[in-house]
Specification:
The complex is a heterodimer of chains A (429) and B (295). With 429 residues, chain A is α+β, with helices and mostly antiparallel strands. Chain A is 32% helix and 10% strand. Chain A is built from 14 helices and twelve strands. In chain A, the strands form four sheets. In chain A, strands 3, 4, 5 and 11 form a four-stranded antiparallel beta sheet that branches. In chain A, strand 1, helix 2 and strand 2 form a beta-alpha-beta unit. By secondary structure, chain B is mainly α. Chain B has a single domain, classed as MetI-like (MetI-like fold). Chain B is 77% helix and 0% strand. Chain B is globular. The N terminus of chain B is likely disordered. Classes of the chains: A alpha+beta (429), B mainly alpha (295). Chain B: One of its GO terms (cellular component) is plasma membrane. Chain B: Keywords: Cell membrane, Membrane, Transmembrane, Transmembrane helix, Transport. Chain B: One of its GO terms (biological process) is transmembrane transport.
Chain lengths: 429, 295
Amino acid sequence: MLAGLAVVALAASACGSDSGSTTSTTAAATTPATSAASSANSSSAPTSGGASSTSGEASTSTSGGSGATVEAALPNSADCSDPASGDAKTATSAEDLGGICGLIAAAKAEGALNVIALPPDWANYGTVIDTFRKKYPEITVNSQQPDASSAQEIQAAEAAKGTTDAPDVFDVGTAVALESLDYFAPYKVTTWDAIPEGNKEETGLWVNDYTGVMTVGYNSDEYGEITSLDQLTDAKFQGAVALNGNPTEANAALNGVVFAALANGGSLDDISAGVDYFKGLKDAGTLSSVDPTPATITSGQVGVVFDWSYNQLGVTKQLEAEGVTWKTFTPSGVALGSFYNQAINKDAPHPAAARLWQEYLFSSEAQNIWMSGGASPVLYEAMKASGTVDAASEANLPTIDSAVVQLSQDQAKAVNTYLADNWSKAVGS
Amino acid sequence: MTTATIPQAPAQRRGLRAAGPFLGTVPFFLYTALFLLLPTAIVVIGAFQDKDGGFSFENIAELGDASVLDALWNSVVLSLVTAVIGAVVGGVLAYVLTTTSPTGAMRRLVTAACSVLAQFGGALLAFAFIATIGANGLISRFLEDSLGTKVAPDLLSTLSGLIPVYLYFQIPLMVIVFLPAVDGLRPQWREAAETLGGSTWVYWRKIGFPLLMPSFLGSLLLLFANAFSAYATAAALISQYNPLIALQVRGKLIAETGLGAPNVAKALALLMVLVVAILMVLYYWLQRRASRWSR
């Protein structure tokens, strides 16, 4: 289990074109109007997945992606006529239901799927859901509480247990995933073997799905170029710099602090430099307390945001339509990721639809859609090997110049303890 | 057999008649149980449970945390300040309204506006303020362009910045709840006081204030509770830390980083219940004193 939380040692994907001290990381290589795109080396994308190691141990470099192939797409609803067999509730693979077409038939019979906490602008989830709807028109997808947190997903499962409204699947952060194993049903998708060892629980209780890298997004029309995090104490950023949430609550915000620590000489084990950095912003009067939503960003209330690359891409596209240039910046050598996880609710009211959704998410089709939203999917390596990566989607991945690291379980715990003790002291009222 | 059944019939009718009035109260008690007693019970029980449902004082111990005490202090101060300002300003406004014609356009307009604004809280209100005096708000822009003075961008996210925002719904609420009490002051009482040679000051000191005091205190308490439990407005304005107790409850409920603790949230809610309970007792005592003369 620890293996899933291992630091994902990602192969640096050789961006030789960037030789400066900082690398401008852009999340919008394909969007023509953004000036940020011009500095992008769109051919070099981060290679997610690949080698992984259990935390603290030597790297085992088991590239799970090799050998296994990833098909171009799942069969559509119309492509299948096989009847279902077996009980979806206890099925741990499509084989238990008579193959993928059996699973599709069972899911169609259920007719509905409840997904929860999937914001349409988060890693392109809106398109992911729409495409699933088109593939399987007989299945009504109910998207509940799009802005809920990971913890709220589990609370919703508990509260709605036994009803047809309970969420069928979860998309949760690592901390919540590991605390909630009792809620998950084991299931292995058909592309299971292509998922690197370090990115999945061995029985299939949870599977890493996608990650981004932490970046600083900013309105370059208003503030000019950002080339160093130290600049953000400048008076021109007065009240405009925001984290995406409260780091004692939100995973993205927590990683924003870790990111600042890494950029200021700290490490995954010692994030005090990150807290000190934000205390410095607070003292300089540049830290905003406002939640960076599309509304507050568009209105100019928030001008600089620490967030995942896939969220920055959504903002970039949205602001582009308003004639505002949103660029991203990442200090050289700082590539911080954090995988989200997919899991099936043990008490899912639509167990077959839940399993079909899982199959769909780990098909090259959905993985490409995530990629076009700026998120690095877990099957990236395997898809590269199988030739199922969509080049246009791949171009949206952020350019990075070093290996992506993420917090191990123990490191995340230590970070939480440190933040609980120090965050409100540093930036509180 | 037949002799035995005869006396039973009237007894049954009596029983139904006796149950009649009780039946009428069933919806009320059901409502109270569902929406007041049950949530309170869930909060009280949950506050003393650990993650696995066992009895524990752990959550209560968490309440001693410095950040919780800070948030409690901030919440009480913010609620008290906005309740007192709201009650005084709203009280005066309500009095002014009673001096106008009860059917006049002025009074109808103001009470209608107050009814709407008293409920104008939450994210809507927060964004209205952001659009007005936020970093790029209408007034902020105007001040910067014409006078060169810059409004502090995080003004609305500080405790003192929350005061004007909260007053936006506190004052109208006070007008609505206090207006009937001021309406109850009969002009004849004032005339009587004047006839007997009393000045305006004497009238207010001996008649006006004592009469209004109980409902004024009641309204003040309502305003306090209103601000103390207000959540959405502050939540929309402040996202990176939790300076208020209601925001801390949210934090413990939604934390996805491993710091979530629903039972600590219940302990925090219990703390809020306690604060309001203390105020109720205080209010009861004050009201008994304030209305002593009338008995």
